[in-house]
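Predict the 3D structure for this chain.
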Amino acid sequence: MKIDMRNRRLVAGLALAAATVATMTACSGGGGHKAESVAADATIKITPGDGTRTARPDEGVAVSASNGHLEQVDVREDGVSAPGGFSTGNTSWKTTWTLKPGVWYQVKVTAKNSKGHETAVMSRFRTAPAGNKIAISDVTPQAEEKVGVGMPIIVTFDGPVANKDQVKQALEVKSDKADEGAWHWMSDRQVVYRTHHYWQPHQKVVFTAHLAGVRAAKGVYGTTDVTKRFSIGASNITVANGKTHHMTVNHDGVVKNFPISMGKATTAEYTTTSGIHLTKEKEDPVTMVSPGHQPGDPEYYKEVIHLAVRISDGGEYIHQAGEEYDALGVRNASHGCVRTSPTGARYFFGIAQRGDVVNVTGTDKKFVDEPYDSDWKFWNYSWDSWLKDGNLQR
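Done. Predicted structure below.
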């Protein structure tokens, strides 16, 4: 069969054109654009969930983000923001303290994905009301009181606390000079804060109990936060020695020495206790009566004493001697108190503030063994013992 040469050239030309188009299609890119990847939006999770009406106050608010990071979290109750903190990388957030029982909270959260696209979420929930309530019945020291460098913070509750760790975590102490301290439970109703070393003098302290929403026991919640402010005054540290019959008083670095006469130790009752005491109150005058003795008893006494500063609930004071001035600096002749000269008593009384340190030495009766639970014996225990739960060890 004879093929027309003109048709052969036409077919070849069409084939070449088709191949060229196919090649250009497969290798295109000279002026084209690659498809951009699309990042998923950040996903936000808020706990408790939107619309919840019985959220546990002690569990707080938790927020997390996936496919991105949190930018802003705002949790409010009646216009007041609840403090909280972000995790490393801002992938989660949690309230610092517990929530108020029986109230509505509003939560606003923004997050961004890897491309910077923002996602915003809002929610509302209500905390469960407190079936039974617990509150603080007393805080020592008093609000705005100026106290000594040994002063503890004593918090007493109006009911027993079972969840001691949860309650302790809600108690916050801030001092201007950032002194280290720790809480120790003395009973199921009382917890005490003591610094590692004595407070540094001349500073302000703020105690806050973030008690609202704390689950103190099963079905028992705190409903109200408590804040008390006080200050640390001068550093007054006294050492009274029953063997040398003198006491040294260090007042902000100024040291004075005074003659004393301590308990005559004819009986345990008349023996001054050794150990670290704290001043508790001062009176001028105060009438002292022998405990457990009646008029006519050889051991009975009733004396009006001046410039008296109490250092224990067992009846020990530092005060001006009312008699036997010849014993001062020489021998122990009192009924258990620390007697000193009029000059020494006036000076000590004048600078004394609650929580000053008085370290009594030189006797064989220990202050820590006294039976009075209200005594402030806290400095007679080691720091390691103070940090542990349970009974304190010397």
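The helical segments are 5-26, 164-169, 342-351, 383-387.
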